Amino acid sequence: MKLGTNAWQRNLFIATFIIPTFLFFCVFTVYPVLQAMYYSLYDWSGSSDNKTFIGLDNFKEMLHDPIIWIGMGNDYFLVAGKIIGIMILATFFAVALTRFKFRLANFFRSIFFIPNVISVVVIGVLWNFIYNPQIGFLNSFLSLFTKDKVDITWLGFTSHTIWMLLPPAIWAGIGFYMILLIAAIQGIPESYYEASSLEGAGQWHQFRHITLPLIWEQMKVSILNIMMTTLNGSFVIVMIMTNGGPDNTTQVMGSYLYQMAFTQYHFGYGAAIGVLILVLSMITTVILQRLMRQETIEIS
Amino acid sequence: MMFKRHLAALSLAALMIVAPLAGCGSKDSSTSTKTEDASSSTTTTTNTDSSSNTTTDDSTKKLTGDFEIQYFVGGYGDKWWKKVIADFKAANPDLNVKESGGPKINDQMKPRWVGGNPPDFVYIDGPNLNDRQMVEDGQLEDLTDWMKDATNIDGTKISDILAQPPQLFDGKVYDIPLVLNSWGVFWDKALFQEKGWEEPKDWQSFLSVSDKIKAAGVTPFIHTGKYPYYINGAILYPAIVSANNNDISILQDMADSKVEAFQQPAVLTALNKIVELRDKGFIDKASIQINHTDSQMLFLQHKDAFIPNGLWLPNEMAKDVPGGFSFGFIPSVTQDSGGKVVANTSTANVAIAKNAKNKEAAKAFLQFIFSEAQASQWAELSGAPSNIKGDISSSSAPSHVKDAARYLTDSNTVVVPSITFNADVDKAMQDATDALTIGKITPEEWVQRVVDVAKKVKK
Question: Which residues form the ABC transmembrane type-1 domain (chain A) (predicted)?
Fold first, then answer.
């Protein structure tokens, strides 16, 4: 390949974009992942300068650790709950704001998007206040309809407390996916709908046979994204709202990782949990992609 | 034209490759200067071991080089640290004192401890810093020999003036308690007087006044279920000691994760006291899900009459204490009538890093801070008793601090020295206590759970 030829220039041009990105990817993604894998093979407190190689013992221990199983169950509960909740509501809002033309559509679009602008930490604190048994909004509201003051401890049930984390998580997620779906719906040519209404199709038929197939690609991306962000990120809302408690009932893998690595001084074990999260995320992605494989219908 | 495009592509490529490297380069150079700094400071300071011959003439010895102090800023604030460091600087003008303080300092400094480049001196307090773990990790300097005859700047032997002796790890001293805190139960004296409620002295009077409080429409007891170590420290551990005939060795055995200690009947007796509070409906239902600040707010608003807490409480909530509120304090309520009060103390300790570069300055700083002048200054500036014996009744320390100091020096009080549990056992006890307060498990199951964890830790 001679210097200055077109091919050489083309390759150079591509390389200018690929190489720096690849380097950054290696430094900030590949290297930390490899390091986490490395630490997961050690018994290390995280604050000592010596560590012991123990092979796969951390992973073996996980099998007998009940909290790992609770965390995994809670994680997948949140994944399922969020996918169902967010997708139904986001699709509903997106259709409502695009297909049913009404005056305040733009206003509502902004309103629904607001939770996405707020940091998860603020959302956690806000919902903590809603759930507060003594001075919280929810109990005060319910007390309007009862004779005695309602004093339900929303975040303190002996089990199933994880259910209470679902509403804030869904509430926080709707806006973004709604915008994504609105964009997809707006990309569908108006003529399709006109033609179908001439043929006598009602709103539901139009939704089922025009909108849904044509936005399926975006929905797929949304579902995968919800799954991945939940498995990797539900840690924040748990830490803010319940700290994994009471009695570990709301622990997710991420919060347990933090707990083990930084509060109970088992950094190696924490790293092993991190590796587990990575593996589970990948497996789940593959499975979900297979499940959702459906011929993509493209607008021609 | 062709050439121009070629040139443009090349320069773009060069720019994009070099730009990120520029970042790396500057980072590299900064770390290398840091290591140079470190090495120069090790060379300038003479690392003579002054462990045995530290006497008053030590203060006249010139301290040089760099000296770094790490201190956590929490409920006690940082007024005292600023003051004492300024005083120490004034006394040692040739020493370059560097302070690393803040509410997140424990996390911020962790990489340096791991990397073998810790600060010289550390104040062990706040989250994510556990002296037992630091000792196990070999991070702290063994001070056993030094403590034997170390004197402070006034020439007084330090071990003679400590209210609480240092905790022993396998018989060795690694850190010295600086702050003496006691767990206990707080109430508002003014409210109790107004309502005609008696202040509790023991378990029986605590229960009977709680009955009255409940009848008056106030919830008797609130704690923070998010951080169950509050109720463990102020209720459970003193109750265990009381039930164990005031013998504190049971808690020390628990701290050593000895399985038999958890199986003692005293533990069950103590747990049943919490069950009694629960079954009588004395525990505010909100407790389980709220954090310490929220529980303290509800207490200050008189929604609840009693709160288990530490002596930092009034200082921590200073901005929110309503007018007329007067803190009443007793270290324990779980003793039978006529029994001794049990004060479960928790000390915040100071230590020298094993890899410290200026151990001489760190030891001099220890001698400097463990003096009576600094002790009364601590009580005034941080609103908590210091660990140095001395009469503070005439000082300007707040009244609950004086109350606490009176309890801690009373011969009728069992003073439990600061105990650090293994982190896994501690967490298991906290989770189990939470589960117990909401009726999820029985006391027997509490014991079983903790025993299982202790067994695993001992392995």
Answer: 72-288
Q: Are B303 and B218 in contact (CB under 8 A)?
A: yes
- Which of A277, A274, A268 lies closest to A41, judged by CA? A268
- Chain A residues lying within 8 Å of B284, measured CB to CB: 134
Prediction pTM value: 0.83
B380: tokens are 């005034």
- Partner-chain contact A247 B139, CB within 8 Å: no
Domains parsed from chain B with CATH numbers: 65-181+347-400 (3.40.190.10), 182-345+415-458 (3.40.190.10)
Q: Are A158 and B10 a contacting pair at CB < 8 A?
A: no
Are A47 and B298 a contacting pair at CB < 8 A? Answer: no
- For chain B, first and last CA: distance in Å? 76
Q: Based on C-alpha coordinates, what's the Rg of chain B?
A: 26
Exposed/middle/buried for A193, CB within 10 Å: 0-12, 13-18, 19+? middle
- Tell the burial category of B144 from Cβ atoms under 10 Å away from its Cβ (0-12, 13-18, 19+): middle
The type of residue at B314 is: P
CA separation for the pair B77, B412 (Å, rounded)? 32
The DSSP-derived string for A120-178 is: HHHHHHHHHHHH-TTT-HHHHHHHTTSSSPP---TT--SS-GGGGGHHHHHHHHHHHHH
Structure tokens at A7: 């091919």
Size of interface A-B (CB pairs under 8 A): 120
Cβ-Cβ contacts under 8 Å, A9 against chain B: 5-6, 9
Burial zone of A290 (CB within 10 Å; 0-12 exposed, 13-18 middle, 19+ buried) = exposed
Q: What ipTM does this complex have?
A: 0.87
Report CA Rg, chain A: 24
Q: How confident is the model at residue B384 (pLDDT cuts 50, 70, 90)?
A: confident
Which tens digit of pLDDT belongs to each residue from A187-239? Answer: 999 999 999 999 998 889 999 999 999 999 999 999 999 999 999 889 999 99
CB contacts of A45 in chain B (<8 Å) are 133, 136-137
* Span B270-301, pLDDT tens digits: 999 999 999 999 999 999 999 899 999 999 99
